[in-house]
C-alpha cells in the first residue's frame, strides 16, 4: 500500500465542464470497457482503495468489480450516482456543484428521490464524439472528490494509451 494521497479540493463548475469536454472518447467498445475497468481496478489496488467499479453502456453493465473493503452499500451508491449521469448527461460531481453554486443542495433543488439519485462525485459520463453520452463509469468507496478524481485519472490514462 502506498502513502495516503491528499484529498482533492472540489473543482469549480467551469473546471468540471472543461474536464468533461476534454475526456470525450473517440469510441467505446466492450474491449474498451474491460481496459478502462481493469485500469481503475489496478489504480485502486495500488492505493489500497476499498472501492467498487462499474461501467455501463446504456442499460448494459459491461464491467463490475468490488475490491476488498467495499460492500453492497457501494453498489447502491453506484446506482444512485449513475442515475444522475443518465438523467443530466453530466458527471455526478458537476451536477451537485451546479446546485451548490446556486446556494441549494441537490436533494432540495432537484426534488428527486434521494434514495434513487445522488449528486455525489464518482460517476462520469462516457461521451463518444459524434454520439454524445452513451454510458457511465462509476466508482464508490472513497470520499466523493476522491471517487471523482480516480475516475478522471483513469480516463486520462485510458485516452493517453
UniProtKB/TrEMBL annotation:
Gene3D superfamilies documented for this protein: Haem-degrading domain (3.30.450.150)
Top-level taxon of the source organism: Bacteria
Cross-referenced InterPro entries: PduO/GlcC-like, PduO/GlcC-like_sf, YBR137W-like
Family: Belongs to the UPF0303 family.
HAMAP family hit by this protein: UPF0303 (MF_00761)
Official protein name in the record: UPF0303 protein NX801_02955
Source species: Streptomyces pyxinae
